[in-house]
Amino acid sequence: MKPNEGQSIRPERVGSVAGVLLAAGSSTRMGRNKLLLPLDGESVLRRAVMRALASGLDPVLVVLGHESERVSRELSGLPCRPVQNPGHAGGIQTSLKAGIAAIPAEARAAVVLLADMPLVTREMLAAVVERYRESQASLVLSEYGGVQAPPTLYDRSLFAELLAEEGEGCSKRVIRRHSADAETLSWPAATLADLDSPEDYDRVRGHSRGETPCAPIC
Question: Which domain holds residue 93?
Answer without folding.
Answer: 16-188
